[in-house]
Amino acid sequence: MLDIKKIRADFPILSREVNGKPLVYLDNGASAQKPQVVIDAITTAYSHEYANVHRGLHYLSNLATEKYEAVRGTIARFLGVADENQIVLNSGTTEGINMVAYGWAMPRMEAGDEIILSVMEHHANIVPWHFLRERQGVVLKWVDVDATGALDPQKVLDAIGPKTKLIAVTHLSNVLGTKVDVKAICEGARAKGVPVLVDGSQAAVHMPVNVDEIGCDFYAITGHKLYGPSGSGAIFVKSERLAEMRPFMGGGDMIREVSKDAVTYNDPPMKFEAGTPGIVQTIGLGVALEYMMDVGMHDIAAHEDALSSYAQQRLTGLNWLNVQGTTPDKAAIFSFTMDGAAHAHDISTILDKKGVAVRAGHHCAGPLMDHLGVTATCRASFAMYNTTDEVDALIDALELAHDLFG
């Protein structure tokens, strides 16, 4: 069970006020706040330990390299991956998925080949595949969710045809909070010889993840949602897929030798990590993941599940509020619109006046907005440090917005 007071004390920004009101930060789906240990680690790295990695023999370079490379093992442990050499470090999920699109998919797909996507995907797991559609004639096949926002794994598997080369699916919707049974999808796809990429950006922060048990070929995460710095992240790539991939970017560190006439590449995962990386960002990510594991992922999930149930009960009690996504096992992410002419941006502005921070817009999920028949929603997304009192503050702010726009 979480000690919420202690956890909240670890996040200095939560003690501030916004517009004269205590901050109620419910925009965690976009980016989570940072605990003091992460802030301290970043400050220490820049103040006392900074140097470039991998390239120097001096003390600071060795120290920075040791701390940076240790994060690969931390990420592997966090994701339940036995072999840390299957972890490619990067700037986040967007880079990871693009690496797969350019390095693995592009060389082996031709006109008419198919990629299966769910309608819930974030643009980061859509646009790279559109590149292949535009440039190589690849076909994108879409699988819809049901009226509650649930995605039936069997519908994904039924979409597989003789031309299917990849399934790319989210583990947890950033708009609806829907949890997807990616293990079932991976088991069925593997039986048909189809690789699966999982966007774990939202799932990894809300619940325990074991990639080896899921059985996917690729699993992408992003640091800034995991209480770590922006510009940090990683992607798990199964060893056989690493062997099939060509480098996404060229530069230092991803090579062994370069001459005028030839280049010899480094071994994976270094083969896919060109140039000076986000050294301090990655070190900060490692500290953030250690913090989460110390708190306990099962305890985090249990706390957020209780928050989700309470928030769902309070929100559905507002008969003028339309909540998108009503699956009973959803994560603590709630998108909603209000009856009448109130736009999501207007609602968000009123909530901000009460110190309640939510997201408003299409949430980088255009196909899902079209499916839902809306142009924008407000989204309240919860984290381990949020409380039922903050749910109540959200409800009070929504009632004020309704009074003003009603």
Can you offer a commentary on this structure?
With 406 residues, the protein is of the alpha/beta class. It folds into 2 domains: 4-30 and 296-405, Aspartate Aminotransferase, domain 1, CATH 3.90.1150.10; 41-294, Aspartate Aminotransferase, domain 2 (3-Layer(aba) Sandwich), CATH 3.40.640. 41% of the residues lie in helices and 17% in strands. It has 15 helices and 17 strands. Helix 2 (36-48) packs antiparallel against helix 11 (279-295) and helix 4 (93-108) packs parallel to helix 5. The longest helix is centred in the N-terminal third of the chain and has 21 residues, at 59-79. It starts with a helix and ends with a helix. Its cofactor is pyridoxal 5'-phosphate. It holds the Pfam family Aminotran_5.
Topology readout:
Blueprint: H1 4-9, E1 17-18, E2 21-22, E3 24-25, H2 36-48, H3 59-79, E4 87-90, H4 93-108, E5 114-118, H5 127-136, E6 139-143, H6 153-158, E7 164-170, H7 182-191, E8 196-199, H8 203-206, H9 211-214, E9 218-222, E10 233-237, H10 239-244, E11 255-258, E12 263-265, H11 279-295, H12 297-316, E13 321-324, E14 333-338, H13 344-353, E15 356-357, E16 359-361, H14 366-372, E17 377-381, H15 388-405
Parallel strand pairs: 3-15, 5-6, 5-7, 7-8, 8-9
Antiparallel strand pairs: 1-2, 4-10, 9-10, 11-12, 13-14, 14-17, 16-17
Distance between the termini: 40 Å
The number of helices is 15
Q: Structural class, judged by helices and strands?
A: alpha/beta
Number of strands: 17
Helix content: 40-55%
| Whole-number mean pLDDT | 97
Report strand order across the widest sheet. Answer: 4-10-9-8-7-5-6
What's the CATH topology name of the largest domain?
Aspartate Aminotransferase, domain 2
Give me the CATH architecture of the largest domain, please.
Answer: 3-Layer(aba) Sandwich
**Per DSSP, what share of the residues sits in E-state strands of 2 or more residues?**
15-25%
Rg (C-alpha, Å):
22 Å
Number of domains: 2
Overall geometry comes to globular
CATH class (first level) name of the largest domain: Alpha Beta
Q: Looking at this structure, what is the CATH superfamily of the largest domain?
A: Type I PLP-dependent aspartate aminotransferase-like (Major domain)
Q: Can you summarize the main beta sheet? A: 7 strands, mixed
Poorly predicted runs of 5 or more residues? none
